[in-house]
Amino acid sequence: MKDIGIRSLSGAGYVGVLLGAIYTADWAFVIVIALFSGLALWEFSRLCKASPWISMAFLLLCFGLGYFRMMPAIVRDLLLGLSLLNNSYLCYVLFLQKSMDISPKKGLYFALTYVMASSYFIPEIERFDAASGVGLLLLFYVATWANNSFAYLVGSAIGKNKLFPTISPKKSWEGFIGGTLATLFIAYIFSYYSNIDIFLALVIGLSIPVLATVGDLVQSYFKRKANVKDSGSLLPGHGGFYDRMDSVIFSAPFYYFILILFNYVS
Fold it and tell me: Taking the complete model, does pTM exceed 0.90, yes or no?
């Protein structure tokens, strides 16, 4: 019970900081996400025994160029393509159970193309959302939190059929279905009270559970490779920032790409 209380307080603080930044100003959100992503990147680099300094420098450079609108469109598009391809490759490794040795050099590669590149598109969602005023950033976070929370609650209560036992033995199909239904409901509520297209809401409601779950499994894969339970200890009850942000980091470029397809961003 004590662990649940600590986990709840830590999670509430994390959510409170994010929501406060979202509703304060775009610069506040960029600073918070840069800090959180930087900590996640540092923890990931430590898991892979890779030097964090190069990837951290690129993270700050990309976030700075993005915030001041100095990122060339072609570089942004290349970064998006690289992120989508690399995250898709991680799915290939994960689901086909291909063996992959994580050397320090390969760890640096994944730090750049997976954690850093994906994290860049979190504040990009916020920037374009500020222009359109339709709550796409808030939907991204609330849908992800709803999926993860209900997947955990339903899975803990009635989960019997394991989703991916070789990587994450606690995940179940029952939890996945529960998280998906909760996410669809959240997406519908957002579309009902805003000008978000109902078809877009349906696509988000169906894609977020898949992306968030895969993101968590990818993180579990890297932790198993490093033979650790948590990526860090900065968030009591949750582990580290990589533990807390795994779903958001993995999902961000795909979510951004979905918005491009629906002409919400360009």
Answer: yes
